[in-house]
C-alpha cells in the first residue's frame, strides 16, 4: 500500500468530500454491511495491508454477510465472499457486473491498455475478439508442443542447476508466454522483459486494492503539485507507467524488427497481423494487436510462476503427496517416458493435486475487480452504479463448510514426513505469500535429486533427442 498517512490536506477538502459522499449515499436501502467507519475516512484506517483477502473473509463472518462494504472517502467497494453470491452477482447478473472500475491510478500507472482492466468499450471489444481468436479451446491446443518443449528444457536446467530452480521456472513461464505472444526471444531479452513486467505488476498491485491510493477516491488530487504533502503517489505512478509502457512496447518492437524467431508464423503477433478487423485504421489495428500481445504476456507469465512455485512448495512440504502422485504416474506412464497432456485423464490423483494447489493458494486471491454498470439490490442491500466489486476467490476456496480444514493441503490424507536438504537435515519452510493481485510464495529452499538409479540414468541422457527423467523434490 502506498503510505499516504502523511496526507495533510486542508480540512476544508475533507468537509467537501464528506458532504459529497453523504449526498451520494442518500438512498432508502442500506448498502451491504461494513466494519465500523469513522467520519470522512470511512474504513480507510482499518484496511488490511497483509493478505487483505483473509481480513475480508473475517469481516464477512463477523458481519454475517456474504457481501461486505468498504468505504474509503465516500467511495464504495464491495467484497463478494461466497460462491453463492458470486454466482448470483457475477454470473446471473453479469450484464450489470461486468464493467471495470478503472481507478485513476490505473491510468496514471500506464496500465490503461490492459484488456482485463479496461471498461466495457469498443476498444475493449476489439481486443477481446483478438484474445478469443488466440485462446479459444481449439486454438489453445496448438500451443501444447511448445509448452511441452519448454517444460523439458526447464527440467534439464533444474537437473543441471537445482539450486536455481526458481530462476529456471521463471524463465520457462516467461518463455512460454513470450513465445505465444511474439515468437521465440533471446532468453536474456525475455528475462529483462519479465523483470520489467514483474516490477510493474507488483507496483500496480500495491495501488489498486481498496484504500491503497487515496487519489482513486479523490481524483482531483492528481492535479495538485508533486511537492504538495501526500503526493508520493505521483512519482510512484510515473515510475510504474514507464515500466508498463516498456513492457507493452519493447517486445512488440522486437517482433517488428524481426528479432524474434517465428519462422512458422506460430505467434499471436504473426497470426494477428493479417486478421484484425479491416475497418479499423492501421494505427488502431496495430495498437489493438500490441495491447492484446502485451496482456497475454502480462497475464500469462507471472501467474504461471506463482502457481508453479506453489506446486513445488506444496510437494516439498508434503512428500507423501509427492510420492503418491509419482506412483500414479509410474503406474500409468511407466519409466520410459515423461507424462504428456494426453495422460491427464488417466491420472486422477495428479489432477486432484493440481486442483488442490489452485485451491490452497489461489494465484489471484481477489481476482480482477469489476464495476457495477447500474444500480442494483442484492438481498435487500443497495449496490449503486460505479461500485467496485472484488470477488474474494480465497474466501470462496477456504470456506470451512465446503472444505472442512481449509488451510490444510490435502488431495488425500497421506502421511507427511519432513522434507530433507542435501545434508539430510529437515527443511523447515513456513509458507509465506506476497500481498498483490498475483500472490507468490516468498523465496524458499528446495533440493531436487533423481529419485533412483533408473531416474539418474534417464536424466543423464538429457539433451538427447527425447530424454526421459523424473525428479524428486526433497
Ligand atoms: C494459474 C494461472 C492463471 C491464472 C490464475 C489466471 C487468472 C486470470 C484472471 C483472474 C484473469 C482476469 C479475468 C477477468 O476478470 O476477466 C485473467 C485474464 C487473462 N489471462 Fe489468465 N491466468 C492464468 C494463466 C494465464 C496464461 C498462462 C495465459 C496466457 C499465456 C493467460 C492469459 C490471460 C489473458 C490474455 C487474460 C485477459 C483476458 C481478457 O481480459 O479478456 N492467463 N487471468
Automatic annotation (TrEMBL):
<keyword id="KW-0503">Monooxygenase</keyword>
<keyword id="KW-0349">Heme</keyword>
<keyword id="KW-0408">Iron</keyword>
<protein>
    <recommendedName>
        <fullName>Cytochrome P450</fullName>
    </recommendedName>
</protein>
<dbReference type="InterPro" id="IPR050364">
    <property type="entry name" value="Cytochrome_P450_fung"/>
</dbReference>
<dbReference type="GO" id="GO:0020037">
    <property type="term" value="F:heme binding"/>
</dbReference>
<dbReference type="GO" id="GO:0005506">
    <property type="term" value="F:iron ion binding"/>
</dbReference>
<dbReference type="InterPro" id="IPR001128">
    <property type="entry name" value="Cyt_P450"/>
</dbReference>
<comment type="similarity">
    <text>Belongs to the cytochrome P450 family.</text>
</comment>
<comment type="pathway">
    <text>Secondary metabolite biosynthesis.</text>
</comment>
<feature type="signal peptide">
    <location>
        <begin position="1"/>
        <end position="18"/>
    </location>
</feature>
<keyword id="KW-0732">Signal</keyword>
<dbReference type="InterPro" id="IPR036396">
    <property type="entry name" value="Cyt_P450_sf"/>
</dbReference>
<dbReference type="GO" id="GO:0016705">
    <property type="term" value="F:oxidoreductase activity, acting on paired donors, with incorporation or reduction of molecular oxygen"/>
</dbReference>
<dbReference type="InterPro" id="IPR002401">
    <property type="entry name" value="Cyt_P450_E_grp-I"/>
</dbReference>
<dbReference type="GO" id="GO:0004497">
    <property type="term" value="F:monooxygenase activity"/>
</dbReference>
<keyword id="KW-0560">Oxidoreductase</keyword>
<dbReference type="Pfam" id="PF00067">
    <property type="entry name" value="p450"/>
</dbReference>
<keyword id="KW-0479">Metal-binding</keyword>
